[in-house]
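Quick start: read one record
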Amino acid sequence: MQKSSRYRWFVVGVFFVFMLLHQADKLLIGPLTTPIMEHFGINRAQMGFVTTGALVVGAIFYPLWGYLYDRYARSKLLALASLLWGASTWVSAIAPTYGTFLASRASTGIDDSSYPGLYSLISDYFGPQVRGKIYGLLELTAPIGYLLGMILGLFLGGAIGWRGVFYITGSLGIVLSVVIFFSVREPPRGQSEPEMADLEQVHTYRFNWETARGLFQKRSLRILFVQGFFGVFPWNVITYWFFNYLETERGYDENAVFITMVVAVLVLAAGYPLGGALGDYFFKRTPRGRALVAMVGVLAGAVMLILTLSVPDENRLLFGALLAGTAIFIPIAAPNVISTVYDITLPEVRSTALSVQYLIESSGAALAPGIAGLIADQTSLKSAFLIICVSTWILCGIFFALVAYLVPHDVETLRRQMRERAELERSEAAGEA
């Protein structure tokens, strides 16, 4: 069974644009916080509930999206997710009161948890040997979307107001929903697995509860789930508190903060495709390859952060260089986690598996900034970064080492299951002939 190389890259392009604009819309709330607070006359706590609401709703919807993606056409559901993004953002733009604004922004969490189906669909266009690169490319949208959201919020927000910015991003979501609905085809689940390469047709497998329950019997997947809870702590602590750290503890003004963070985010962006490419390279040589790359990435990040935060405040050049060095290691594990989940799960439950992973990660994401704030109040933000980031990265390094030890068995189990399915497909085709 041959797949159009040009078309599958078109699909990647469509989803890259979708994720980029969606991430920018999610992160717009940061630079637009001040004018929104002034418009509604609310305090910081009330504004904080806006973000918390979206996180809570997103976490609740992860299991539902996972189930729906594994049971129905993922491409159509992704079009629906884009429509929900556009519609909820439009409602935010016209919200007359704080209560309606809070409810509308919380509802954006529904589409925030829609990515597992996207990754699952992509896995049926690209084989396991190259998925890390593709996922790394798609995850570039998080840091680039962060910068795009910052630019839109800072520059467009002043020109057309915060409502005008939401009108633009909401409209783009609706347009993209039409593009996805009519241009993205639903591939047969499992068609890109090596065992299916010579088959003209692949039987369509759908979600079933027995297969879903079997996910929790995979030892390497259970460890990945646990790792996910701790693995998001550093990212969320740094993104939430690092601006404040530069301003209050290192004495940076707004321009210095902006330049420092733009450089760090651009370098961080390179870490996603780098991590995916390295994972693919070593996975071709050993099924442990992705987990080992992730392990080295988190441990190197811990070492680099210790070195970075030890630089004296007055040596900004060295601090910036080491911060960039730290940034490139932060995302290296991310594409390898997604790829590993798909290396060991059957095609019809991949959205469910990744939804569970993200649900657990959401729990850690919600806790991390608050814990860092408590530590900072007692000591300093520098101490909070060192305690939380270094300890969780070391812990995750241990988890990834355990995954590397266990994962060959689970990879081989999947390969055996796919061989059995391929033989069944050939037998049925021969019988029909």
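The longest helix spans residues 381-432.
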